[in-house]
Amino acid sequence: MLCSREIFSFLIRKDVRKILKRKDSDAGQRGRALEDLRASIFNKFRPSESAKTQQQRIWGPVSALTFNFMVAVGIIFMNKWVLKNIGFQFPVFLTFIHYLVSWALMAVLKSFSLLPSSPPSKSTPLSLFTLGFVMSFSTGLANVSLKYNSVGFYQMAKIAVTPSIVLAEFIWYRKRVSFSKVIALTVVSIGIAVATVTDLQFSLFGACVALAWIIPSAVNKILWSNMQQKENWTALALMWKTTPITLLFLVSMIPFLDPPGVLAFNWNLSNTSAILMSAILGFLLQWSGALALG
Predict the structure, then answer these.
(1) pLDDT tens for each residue of 239-264
(2) Domain ranges across the chain
(3) Kind and range of the H or E element at 90?
(4) Which among 63, 67, 65, 76 is positioned nearest to 282, based on CA atoms?
(5) Could you report the per-residue pLDDT of 86-112, keeping only the tens digit for each?
(6) Do residues 208 and 87 lie in contact, with contact meaning Cβ atoms separated by under 8 Å?
(7) Which residue, among 286, 166, 165, has the nearest Cα to 218 in the 3D structure?
(8) How buried is 22 (Cβ within 10 angstroms: 0-12 exposed, 13-18 middle, 19+ buried)?
(9) What is the CA radius of gyration of the chain?
(10) H-type alpha helices, 85-160
C-alpha cells in the first residue's frame, strides 16, 4: 500500500505530467522521455530491493553456520551414543548408511523436481571423482576416530583442521588470512580446547586415525568450497553428484577398518531408529556445511 502511494505521488509530479502530456507529433522525444521516466522509477525504488538482497547475503551465511554448528554438536553425541551405548561397532558402515540415506533423500527431492540441476560449469569428472574420494576418507575416518577416542579428544583433533585449511590454502592458492581472523580462530580454538580438556581419552590406534583424518578433512573443505564458489555448484547438486563416488570408496574401506559381524547386529526397532536418526543428522550436517562453505 505504501509503495502504491509513493508511485502515485511520483507520477503526479509536475515534470512527470509534462512528459505524459507531450503531443503525438513529438513521438521520438516522447519515447525517449518515457524511457527516462522508467529509469527514474526503477532507480527510485531499487534501493529497498538492494537492502533486502544485502540482508539476505548477510543472514544467509550466518543462518547456515548457526544451523551447521547445532547439527554438528548433535551428530557427534548421537554417533558416539550409537557406537558406544547401542554397541554398533562399525563406524565406516555407519558412515555408509549416512550417505545412503542422504542419497535416498536427494533422490526423493529429484523425483519432485526439487533438486537443483548441475550448473554448466567446467567441472571435470576427475574433479568430482577426487572430491568424492576425499569425502569418503574424511567422514569415514572421523567416525573411526570417534569410536576409539573420547568426544573431547575428537574435538581437539577437529580444532587442528582449521589451521590445516589455512596452511593448505596458502600453499595451493597463496591465500592469506587477515590478522583479525587469526585472532578470532585462535580464541575459538582455545575456547573449545578449554571446554574439552577434561575429556581427553584416546587409544594409540585412535590417535593415529585422528591424525590421519585431519588432512583429508581439510582438503575436503577446500575442494568443496572452491567448486561451489568458482564453478557455481549448489550444495544439493554437488552432493548428488559426489555421493555415489563416496559410497563406492566407503564400501572398499569397510573390510579394513570395520570388524566383521555387521549382519549379526541386533537390528531391532530401537537400534535401527537410532541409526536412522543419526543418518538424517548426517544429511543435515553435510547440507548445512556445504551451504556454509558456499
Answers:
(1) 999 999 999 999 999 999 999 999 99
(2) 67-293
(3) none
(4) 76
(5) 999 999 999 999 999 999 999 999 999
(6) no
(7) 165
(8) middle
(9) 26
(10) 91-111, 125-148, 151-159
C-alpha cell at 161: 583442521
> Residue 166 corresponds to which amino acid?
V
Task: List, in order, residues 6 or more apart from 200 with CB less than 8 Å away.
Answer: 150, 152, 153, 156
Task: Please check whether residue 227 is in contact with residue 123, taking contact to mean a CB–CB distance below 8 angstroms.
Answer: yes
d(CA 255, CA 48): 58
Are the beta carbons of 131 and 268 closer than 8 angstroms? no
| Distance from C-alpha of 125 to C-alpha of 241, rounded to nearest angstrom | 10
CB atoms within 10 A of CB 244: 12
* CA neighbor of 253 nearest in space, from 149, 134, 85: 134
CA distances in angstroms from 218 to 64, 67, 125, 158, 177, listed in the order given: 19, 20, 21, 10, 16
Locate 248 and state its grid cell.
563406492
Residues 6+ apart with CB under 8 A from 253: 92, 136, 137, 140
Spatial distance between the Cα atoms of 60 and 294, rounded to a whole number of angstroms: 10
How many CB atoms are located within 10 Å of the residue 203 CB? 12
Q: What is the mean pLDDT of residues 214-235?
A: 86
Instruction: Using the structure block, give the residue that is written with the C-alpha cell 571446554.
Output: 195
Q: How confident is the model at residue 168 (pLDDT cuts 50, 70, 90)?
A: confident
DSSP state, residue 103: H
CA distance 197 to 104: 38
